[in-house]
Structures are given as structure tokens and as C-alpha cells.
């Protein structure tokens, strides 16, 4: 294996150096994971139709008790609310609740990396021809699982999508995680409608 030619010491040194660089030059980037999905606490879920059955799990008194307990535990949201039938007021008839999961991580941020490499344009730009902007992030490899589940990112206040799966790079294949993402935020007329290849 190629890896054997490089001494362990060199490898460690390289790893340390590149991580220090990430540490020094990085800024915080917000990573959104796939939302967690929980069955609605207030109504019965219908597996056949994949939505709410429109039936409350509780009697009016039970619902009130449960909600009081929920609020006493320090929560502000409405989780238990009696309804006779129809659309559940907690999940709006979906039958489940989504919890947004997001996390700040440190990343070295390079906007438009392709443009810096002469003669190499297009390598990083899967959709560059239609007015999108590419961003490359270098992050600690410990974020691999998080990045695999990432559905979108906020980089310098701009929303981005991953354009390909995260890549482990570096000596020993474990030194740094490369994330390539793109945005059409700055150029797009209709915000929120940027997904093309995802
Ligand atoms: Zn519900």
C-alpha cells in the first residue's frame, strides 16, 4: 500500500498541521441534518395513508392534564390539545412532528475554489454553468457522519446544498474532510427554489 511509504511521524505531523490550519482560519458554519420524525403525541397515525387518522388520543381532560404537565416541565409548545375529529391542531393533520436538527461546526471556507486553479475550471462546479456559486469547506473528519446526513448548510449567511458526498482527504486518508456545496442564492430570482441536483 502507498500509505506505508510515509512514516507515521510524518503522517501525524501533516495531520496536526492541516488541522491547525483549519482551526486558525476557520469560521462557524451551520449544518442542517435531516429532521427527526416523531409520531404525533396528540393523534393516531394511520400507516396506510401515512397521515393522521384525525382522531385524538385523549379525552379533553386528559389532553389538558398532559399539556399542563408538558408546560410544567418547561416546554412552551402545544403538544396535547383535544379535538373532536378532523385536523389535529398539533401536527396539522400530518400525523407526525419534525424536529429540526442543526449544529455549528468549524470549517475553512473557500468560495469558488475552481476559479483559483488555472486550467482546472469546472472540476468543482457541477452546476456552475447556470449561475450557481460553489463553496468548498475543509472540516475535521469527526464530522463525517454529520455531513453525510446534511441536507443544507449556512455558510457566511448563505444557504448551500452539498453537491456531492463528503470526501476524506489527506495522508492516511483521514486528515481532513472536504465538503463541496453550491448555492444559487445570490443569483436566483426565486429564493427557496434552488434545488436542482439534490
Ligand atoms: Zn396529530
Describe the structure.
The protein has 198 residues and is α+β, with helices and mostly antiparallel strands. It has two domains: 2-34 and 101-183, no CATH class; 41-94, no CATH class. The protein is built from three helices and nine strands; from the N terminus they run H-E-E-E-H-E-E-H-E-E-E-E. The protein has helices at 8-25, 60-72, 144-148, and strands spanning 27-39, 43-46, 51-56, 96-111, 133-139, 150-155, 158-162, 167-169, 176-183. The strands form two sheets. It has a six-stranded antiparallel barrel. The chain has a two-stranded antiparallel ribbon with strand order 2-3. The chain binds zinc ion. Zinc ion (ZN) is lined by residues 40, 42-43, 52, 88, 90-91, 95.
Q: Any chance you could write out the topology, listing elements then pairs?
A:
Blueprint (H helix, E strand, L loop, with lengths): L7 H18 L1 E13 L3 E4 L4 E6 L3 H13 L23 E16 L21 E7 L4 H5 L1 E6 L2 E5 L4 E3 L6 E8 L15
Antiparallel strand pairs: 1-4, 1-6, 2-3, 4-5, 5-9, 6-7, 7-9, 8-9
The protein binds zinc ion (ZN).
Zinc ion binds next to loops.
Amino acid at each position: 500500500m502507498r500509505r506505508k511509504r510515509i512514516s507515521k511521524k510524518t503522517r501525524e505531523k501533516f495531520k496536526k498541521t492541516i488541522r491547525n490550519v483549519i482551526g486558525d482560519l476557520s469560521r462557524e458554519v451551520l449544518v442542517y441534518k435531516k429532521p427527526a420524525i416523531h409520531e404525533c403525541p396528540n393523534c393516531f397515525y394511520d400507516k396506510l395513508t401515512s397521515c393522521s387518522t384525525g382522531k385524538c388520543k385523549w379525552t379533553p381532560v386528559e389532553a389538558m392534564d398532559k399539556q399542563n404537565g408538558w408546560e410544567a416541565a418547561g416546554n412552551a409548545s402545544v403538544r396535547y390539545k383535544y379535538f373532536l375529529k378532523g385536523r389535529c391542531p398539533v401536527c396539522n393533520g400530518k400525523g407526525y412532528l419534525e424536529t429540526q436538527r442543526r449544529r455549528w461546526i468549524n470549517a475553512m471556507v473557500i468560495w469558488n475554489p475552481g476559479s483559483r486553479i488555472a486550467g482546472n475550471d469546472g472540476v468543482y462546479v457541477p452546476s456552475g454553468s447556470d449561475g450557481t456559486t460553489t463553496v468548498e469547506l475543509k472540516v475535521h473528519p469527526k464530522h463525517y457522519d454529520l455531513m453525510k446526513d446534511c441536507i443544507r448548510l449556512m455558510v457566511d449567511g448563505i444557504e448551500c446544498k452539498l453537491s456531492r458526498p463528503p470526501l476524506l482527504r489527506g495522508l492516511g486518508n483521514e486528515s481532513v474532510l472536504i465538503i463541496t456545496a453550491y448555492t444559487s442564492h445570490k443569483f436566483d430570482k426565486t429564493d427557496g427554489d434552488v434545488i436542482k441536483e439534490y
